[in-house]
Structure formats: structure tokens, C-alpha cells
Design brief:
450 residues, alpha/beta, Alkaline Phosphatase, subunit A, 12 strands, globular
Length: 450
Amino acid sequence: MLSRRQFGASLCASTIWGQRRSSRPNIILYLSDDHGWNLAGCYGQAAIQTPNLDALAKQGMRFTSAFAGSSTCSPSRAILYTGLHSARNGLKGNHTACRPGVRSIAHYLRDQGYRVVLANKVHVGPKEVFDFEYVKATLPPVPGRLRRYREEGLDTTVIDSLLADHARSRREQPLCLICADNGPHVVWEKNRIYRPDAVPLPPVTIDTPMTRAAMANYFQDITTTDQRLGEVMASARKHGFEENTMFLYTSDQGPEWPHSKWTVYDSGLRVPFVVRWPKQVRANSVTDAMISFTDVTPTLVEAAGGSPAAGLDGSSFLDVLYGKRKEFRTEIYASHTGDGDMNRFPQRCVRDLRYKYILNLHPDRKWTTHYTLVNGIPESHKDLYDTWLERARTDASAAKLIEKLERHPAEELYDTERDPWELNNLAAETAMAPVIARLRGRMKAMREQL
């Protein structure tokens, strides 16, 4: 019989975070589309309703410094799934493809005995690189809602059926399931619950009635996406995918607003990132450790009991999840190249824990996106942007912001602690010469390495 002291010691040992596991975990990754990193209750935004993501954060670990490797859908997802930067996996522009021979998480985890499923949005290719078991899980079109590029959101009834079937017939095989939702990508759902006059606007927008209406629609789409997240969480619980399951939530990049998506500013690259893993990750924990999407595949491979492949651009942050490390990266590298005939303003950045250096490859070009250029498709916001241009004709601060959004010098430098929205370019400041020289050197080294 155990003494009280021995019993207490054994009980304590059974709750040590990151303890040895008896079996490989299931993995569920909920990947949303264009969800800004700070637009959730658990990230301090009280004006938005995200109860399910908030609950997930209370049950696991919330990352404050998680960064996509690109701010465009296809390149970002390719980096996430391969652990390789765009220059190395070959998928640089949106709607392009990886070079042949690249391996992805689908191969790595399948080699470890996993069933690897991608449900709903794909947006990467070719098939031989991203050789997932694909499950169609898209809600039917909504009458009257015009969309050209985005389908409706994730059909969670398909996910429920998949989990039920796997639990019934393939329980001994570990599952990796990626739930790739289309929300909250434009065209946003029509607002039902938010007051446009009360939604907070970031300082990289111009306050017009159309801006507020659009922001309320965006908030609504985030909340609806969160509802689907909650449905998947409930299905996982119902079918036994909770105790031995690593459940992650993140988004491919920031929102489709100027100075965000299609740029390498933090509002485009920084993403929400939450991990729940019972008995492995401490509940209601927060880490400031900097991670990149290049690190996700190595982490999942190691969590599944394998060794990450040599030559990847990222590395496993499993010890961060276990609470054994408070720091991880000292810098991240990211890129944006283009999206067909639009958003063709290529940028590269190196960001350390405080400063960001941006290299603009074509400073002669005017920054153009769906906001500034395109009419005639539902996803366009040109009518909204036109209200900004109209305001800029008589408002000096609005005119200054428009100039900031549309024209970029060859080099930019920002102090992200003092200037989190990256509005005050320090590249020409004499006092910052040592910082820009150091980061310019890191940029040169990264580009040569890649």
C-alpha cells in the first residue's frame, strides 16, 4: 500500500505537463481564413463575440506572437503544410503550385501511420505534394449571397459524421483532421448582431459609414465562423476525440483590409494561435514565444512521435507547449509576392522581437488590391475605398494615410513595441542606422539561403 507521501507524489506526477504519452495523439487543426490575430475575446477584443475560441484558449495555450510565413492564402497554407518558405517550396504567388518533389504534412504523418484528412478548402497544389484524403465539407450556397471566389463555410455535419465513422471503424488508427473553413474571408456575411457605430476601427482605416458597415459584417463573419468552431469542438467531445487529441486553432493570415492581407505588416502576418492538449498543455496558459508557420509541421510530426525531416525551415516548438521553454524564435522571415493581376507589390520582411525591416522589391509600383483596383466582382471593396479617397480630398490625416497605403519606399523599419500598427517608418532615422544595418544583413542572408 502506498503511503500518503507516495500517493501524493504519484498523483502529482500524473499531472505533470508534457508527460510521456501511451499512444499517439489525434490532431485536429481548425484553420480559418483571414481572421485577424487580435479579433477575439481571448485576445483582448471585448467588442467581438468568439465564445468558442475563448473557451478553447481557457482549456489550452494561447500564443501572442504567432506569424504566418506569407499574407496570402495559397502561399501561407503551403508554408504551414510543408514547413518550407515559399522560395523553397515553389508556391510564391496566390493560385500557383509547389514544385514537384516537395513533401508535406500529409506524407510525414501518413508515414507515421496516421489517417490525414483535409476537409473543405484546399487552395494549394499539386495533388502529389498535398496528398491529403480530401473530404468535401462545404455548406450549400445561400440564396441572394453573391460570391465569386469564396464558397460558403465549413459544413460541420460532415465533420461530425467523419469523426463518428472514424471512432467506430478506425479507432486504432490516429487521425489528423484539418478543418479548413472559408470564413471569415470576403464576401462577409451580412451583419445581424453588431452596431456599426460601435465597432472599433484600427488606425489603418478611415472612418466612413461604409467602413463601419463593412467592419460590422466582418465581425459577424468571425462570430459565425466561431459558431462552427464550437460545433466541431462539440463533435470531437461527443465522439471521444478530446482526451488524447491535440486541437489547434489558427488562421492563414490577417483580414482583407488595407495594410493587412497582401502585406508583410503585423496586421497581415500575425495570427491567432491556440492549442488544447489535455495532460500535455497547461490549461489557461499564455506564451509570448515567437513562432512561425514553418514550425507547425515539425511540431506536429514530433507530437506524433516522429522526428522532423532534415532541411525544413522550421523546428518543433513542442517544449513551448510543454511549458519547458518560454522563448523560441528570435526572428521570423515572411514574404508576399502577388495574386495574379492584383496585389502585385512584392515585399519581404525580417522581424525580431521588437523591430521589423521590410524590403519592397518594386517601390516604383503603386500598391493595388481588391480595394483599390477591382470593380464588378462581389469580393471587391473599391466602392468602400472610394469613400476613403473622397475623404482624403478634404482631410489631411486621411490623405496622409492614403499615401502611406499606396506608396512604399524601398526600405521600411518599424519599432513594433512603440508603433504596433507600423505607421512611422524609421528607416531614414540616423539613430536607427545600427538596427537597420543589422536587419538588412539578416535579410540578405535569408534571401541568399532561400
